[in-house]
Write a structure and sequence with these properties.
Blueprint (H helix, E strand, L loop, with lengths): L6 E5 L3 H13 L3 E5 L2 H5 L8 E6 L7 H10 L6 E5 L4 H9 L4 E4 L4 H33 L3 H11 L4 H8 L3 H15 L4 H11 L8
Parallel strand pairs: 1-2, 1-3, 3-4, 4-5
């Protein structure tokens, strides 16, 4: 399998559950890594690939719900499928409100878990692709000189070359040259394309660096 292939992380302190879930996931051709504690999971090197987390609620160190909270606080957006042998309504509601994809009570049917995993990975694949595109866009933006960044912002604001020149104290020809370099470095095929890129980099419309 390639490093970019989807992967399922399983965190459960019951070795028999880990083994059974691991075999089930592997049977449908997905990569799987298992952990007995949240600490083991957090200290592991997670590959850059679409993924999801199958997480036991009750664990010996940090609980599944606490891990969900900590991941969100760390801006780690990983779809979570909770599994538990002792579910209650408040616990389920709390997990789902915090963004869990599914909450399964043991014993559950294997197909239920596989369906939930496929749904979670499909959602994360979309988010993962978006993050990869944004990283590439940010890298292109970072390649611009300070003056080119100023030109980009003013072009995106709708100013003409002559107006930008007056704003920056440069000739219209100089601005035209800067604008061409901005288009090339950003990989923009048109002015509209460049404006869309600027909006993605700066959705609030405030001045950015």
């Amino acid at each position: 399998m390639k490093d970019s292939d989807p992967i399922v992380f399983v965190v459960d302190d019951d070795a028999s559950v880990r083994d059974a879930v691991s075999r089930l996931i592997a049977s449908v051709g997905l990569r799987v890594e298992t952990f007995g504690t949240t600490r083991e999971f957090l200290s592991s090197q997670r590959p850059e690939a679409p993924a999801c987390l199958v997480l036991d609620v009750r664990l010996p160190d940090v609980s599944g719900l606490e891990l969900q909270r900590d991941l969100a606080a760390a801006n780690v957006h990983l779809p979570i499928i909770f599994i538990t042998g002792h579910a209650d309504v408040p616990m389920t509601v709390r997990a789902m409100k915090a963004g869990a994809v599914e909450f399964l009570t043991k014993p559950f049917r294997g197909q239920e878990l596989i369906d939930a995993i496929q749904d979670a990975i499909a959602k994360d694949r979309v988010a993962w692709n978006e993050r990869a595109q944004m990283a590439q866009l940010r890298s292109r933006y970072d390649s611009l000189t300070p003056r080119e960044k100023e030109v980009l912002q003013l072009v995106a604001a709708g100013l003409l070359n002559k107006q930008i020149g007056a704003e920056l104290g440069a000739s219209e020809l100089t601005i035209k040259t800067h604008r061409g370099r901005v288009m090339e470095k950003m990989g923009a095929e048109s002015l509209a394309d460049l404006v869309r890129m600027s909006e993605r980099l700066n959705p609030t419309g405030t001045k950015y660096k």
